[in-house]
Structure of sterol 14alpha-demethylase:
Amino acid sequence: MMDLWHTLVSILFILAPVFLYHNVALRSTSAEPPLIKGRLPFIGVALNFVSDPQPLLEKMRAKLGWIYTLYLGGRRMTIVSDPVLGIRQVYSQGRIFDAGEFFRYLNIKLFNYTERINSNSEFQEALVRHVITYLSSPANIDAIAKDLQAEYRVLVDENSPFCNDDYTLQNGTTVDLYGFARKTMYVSAAYAVFGKSFPADSLYRNYINFEDSLLRFIKGYPYVFNRSGQDARKAVLADLGDFFIDQEKASRSSPFITGISALFDKFGYMTREDLSGYFLSIVFASKSNSIPIAFWYLAFIVHDPEFKAEIIELIKKNYVKETKDFDWKALYSDPLLNSAFKETTRLASNITSGRAITRDAMIKVADSKDRTKSKEYYLRKGDSVLILSSLTHWDPDAFPDPMAWHARRFLPDSSSSSNPLVPHEHADKDTKEPQWRAYIPWGGGGHMCPGRHLAIVEAVTQLVYMLWYFDIEPVSKTVPKMKVGENYGGGVLKPASAYTVKIRRRSEPLVS
């Protein structure tokens, strides 16, 4: 009995300081953002944040405003959703708010980078320079767009073995539009970027299984709880390693990819492990967000009969009979198509931008209740900052009626009450910016997504050819809901259920 008493006293002696620290010493000062520390010592609100972060984050935003700090597993993570002042500062002050640590973590956790290439800053900087330089060139984007157009058209035209073998679309088949659009865009984009030798078909199923398990990798699930994702990634890495180690096949890729391969050769990183991990991240960057965006773009337009009819007329108007092709430049830059695309990315993108705070700093944040007021907050070196696009994109103060899709929301002359980016009449004088930073699907700063220029190319290409060759009618009266839950913050949202449509091949394209 005495031994049991001694044991209990010992446990209490150990735990008492922990609870004392959590409940008394762990707090924010008046100069810091409000601290949400939860009830569990050390763990804080980590369990809520990992399992289903959306209710927690939106509750705190409604209660505390556009900045607050979460205590997660012994670390402080500050959430910033202020589109007036705060987000702009995080993205523009890269030396204070460093994205490098965030990406190095993902490189290992998600893509299985080898440690030697992940830690080589000179090599990483060379890769980033190549990617940004190449994808910032309109001529390079045009070249990839032409290849994408050719590949996509082969998949869906009247001679398509894919459509005729897998889907008898000429008979008015009912299909899951997401499954159909996902496969056609994945294959055509893969061939356009990696060349016809790329094993797109054999990779597809394993890659999709890996993609659907992304958050399990990020959250560090052990193998037993992420068996299918781990096995799928292993298979994908093996196929990518075999492809890129074969210089004859890899050399048939686009100049964008061969330029990356040349850097690997220059730095002496030509092993299967080095190549496969990095190129898995390129496959991910080129497909995992842009393909679901292209689907939602098509789905929202198809579901609005009047708007779909308007877009069909726009497509017909930009068909050039002499060349038997479209005026793609006009289509990609069309204000209405761009507005609908921006509205789609606003609603469906669910991106997390993470930054490590490299030194003690002050950040000015507007008052969410009275935007004419602002306050400076102290942030500690070693803590982290998170910006989640949905906290801003779905904020009714930034975008009235935020959960509805308004195709014309981003037109410059829109007089709709749903028009975004409400001018901020009392903008901070230091920013000299009359509008909010409320549209952030591509992140910001030096790590702004370089693939954003290709995303609209993919979406418009798919839309044009699908409406050109097919009559598409939704079976359901509603567009499927987006799957949020534990996927919150994990990238462009997927549909929560199938979006069944009746799809029939036109007896001839819109313009004979």
In short: The first helix runs from residue 2 to 25.
